[in-house]
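Researcher: I'm preparing a figure for a lab meeting and need a structural model of a single chain. I don't have an experimental structure, so a prediction will have to do for now. The sequence is pasted below. Please return the structure as tokens so I can convert it later.
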Amino acid sequence: MTVPKKKGKFRIKISILHKIISYAVSLVFATVGISTYIAVSTEREVLSNKLMHQGKRIAKDIAFSTRKALLSSDWSLVEKMLADFTGSDHSEVIYIWLVNPEGKIHIANDISLCGNSVDKGLLDRQDNTSKRFFPERKEYGMLLVNGTVIENRNWYVLVALSSHSINATTKRLIFHNLVSGTFAVLLGTVVSLLLAKSICKPIIGLKQAAATISDGNLDHRVVAESNDEVGDLANTFNDMALKLKKSRAGLEEKVEELATEKELLAITLGGMSEGLIAVDTKKHIILFNTTAEKLSGWKFAEVHGRLIDDIFRIVNEQTNEPLESPINRALQTGIAEFGTPDDALVSKDARLRAVAICSSPIRKKDGAIVGVVTVVRDVSREREIDHMKEDFTSSVSHELRTPLTSIKAYTETILRDPNMPEETRLQFLAVVDEESDRLATLIEDLLEVSRIQSGKAKFKQEPVDVTAIVEKVVTALQPLAEKNNIRLQKTVAENLPELQADAGKIESVVTNLLNNAIKFTPQAGRVSIHVQKTENEMVIRVSDTGMGIPKESLPKIFDRFYRVNRPGKQIQGTGLGLSIVSKIVTMHNGRIDVESDVDKGTTFTVFLPLKAAAAQQHTTTKVCAK
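Model: Understood. Here is the structure written out token by token.
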């Protein structure tokens, strides 16, 4: 974490080394200055006291020597004596004043000072002083010694001594101290530099080590070169680096575990066949797996954080009316909520997809709801199968009821009229026989589908004459074609080899294809069957000029119970014929193709290998719609 810098005026960055040197030099300067001041003050005080004692002694000597001359008022002798005192033996004496009882200078070695008055308080002082007596004579640096009383005369002797010696001595002392102070500063600078380097070196090392560790190299260590606090800091730093390394190793392990768990979770969620959606309590999307993306048409990046109501819209599949989402109910009730049997999800491109929905609240350990997880399952196939089963049940019921109704009606008629003409009775019995065959065929188809689906269908390989089978089926269906005014044509290549197959099942394939073609071809139409041989296969092609099959229905026509929805043109059937054909072709290791053009016709092409092959479990089909 980066520590924020304080806002304020611009600051110059000063290193610790410079700070230590600056502080040390400043300390030396201060020490030299203070010591010089103390030394100079002390020395000046000593010299001043010494000079003061000397002045007092001179004043006493003058008072003693001039006592008789003053008593006799011999002023010339007094002046001569004062002149002697200011001679070469007393060069430090500047002024000598004799002050009369009225406080005026009566005799002085400087005649110009005679007649001046002297402050009475100054004469009475008993301590030393260094104040100037005559301000107009500032050119003199002098020390004034307090007066000495001349015996019985109330006269005073004042002596002013030169302070030149004190000043000279003080200057020499200051000079010597400055010289020694300069050397002290230089020496202090050098010593502080060395000391600062010795202190800063390990700190700089710690700084570089910290930078190295911050770059990710936790194996870097600092060498502790001393046993002082800096050494302790280096050892503590190394311990910290070691702990950081262990912590990072543990963290990387945890991150790797979390990444693995996240990857496994992503794989699990992505591999789910159901859509998984999670929202928070405000219904913002926080999870949207791959299947949910496929079902809705939205990508997770597009819906993350958006309201679920904007993305996940449920309507009734039959009425297209909006329905309340189970997500909302789960948030309100706090329990699992389910959708309705007619739920349909409106995808991004506005298409409807049949879905089954279950929403459950997500709770924390304390029971608080933090969101809702919703499982969405695509049930389009199940609903389609349900519809197919419903259609199948309706169709089978109709197909069973029709022949049974005919059989019952004709039978009751025969039973009620024992005197019925023989010819009429035989006609009725023929109808009963025909309807019974129709009923038996329907039941056989149902059983055949069940046997094939369960894997219990018998498969007998033997040489099969395909030409004979086609001839037999065409002959059998010719009356049905003529009844519907449909022209039935066959084209069979000459010298076709025998096919290793199950004759009954090949006959069922041809029968179902031709029967469907006749059923879905309007009057005056045409149905044809063409049989030929290629290099390794027998090819059976059945074409018609009938209704055709819509493009969207082509992938489903071989499913059980599937019947093409033809509004206004619905034709009865069970939806089992093409499923049986597909399964039989698969059992012979063949394939079937279909091409269709709505309102123009359909062509089914069956390819059967000439050599015997084991039964297969999956049909290979190719569909094409124009």
